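so my prof wants the structure for this chain in the tokens format not the other one, which i didnt know existed until like an hour ago. anyway here's the sequence
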Amino acid sequence: MTEGFTRASSPVAAEDALRQDLARGDAVIESVGPVLRHLLSSEDHSVFRDEIVAATRGMLTDLTRQLLEGLAAEGNPTDQNAELSAALVERLVGEPELLVHVHALALEVQLALRLEARLGLDPVVSPLLQALLASSDEHVSALAMGLVAAQARFVQNQRRMQLPLGELPGDLLHRVLIAFRDVVSGQDTAERCEAAVRSAFDESRSRLGLLSRLVTGMGGGATAGLSLGHAGGAIFLTALSQASGEEREKVALIVSQEQLTRLALALRAAGINPDGIVQQLEILQPDARLQAYLEHLGTDQAATLLAQSALNRLG
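here's what i got, hopefully its the right format
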């Protein structure tokens, strides 16, 4: 979906136009979860031709595979694995927050590939990440080095439609393990498998954990992360999420759907000036136009409009 910016004759009319654009975007994005759940639950495999849906399904299946392999490692017979796998995948499809997260990861890779095709941007090492690698601050350079390795693994895993359990946010890993516990209830080996997964988990060392720590550590310099062409998709999504208060998954949806009004407001809420906003929008949509009245829209007003959007009920 693409959105245009229409002229408005007054500040009041301008704000009304923004609200209307956001409402149209809400209608599209709010349908994503239900439609995706329907596609993933369908027995007709032809619906998985879309690469994003296929990648989402693949990652849920991979989470299931890891848990069942852990179960087998604890001595559980494998003769029921096919049945357990189907039941667990079905259960995970029914976890809205997990589904939104996994879907957003697939969209993130799509964004990286678009930036590579359009700007020649490496999907692993962006110019900003290269600069951080050369930082004289050993802590920053070490974080950057860790992120390069994590980003390389992420891109490779996405090509294989895989998602390591340790790369999930902590609250989602907990949901996955609760679902696992319910599906294989009553087995001592399941408890040992769950305990092993939990003991090995360290969210701060995950790719998303490294991204969060790196952007937070940049302090005032985090504004550099709000440039798609300089920061790359991964850092951009994290930086815009932190600066605007939008969840990272929602930012990925905004960008992938080319919800230009919402993206412009998020960037404005993050403190980016109109010229900077135009530069970001033109990367995604070369003929994007920014209304003149947006120049007079304050960061607080932009944040308020976003907070009132129905998209904040996503999931």
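also thought this was worth mentioning. Residues 1-9, 43-49 have pLDDT under 50 and may be disordered.
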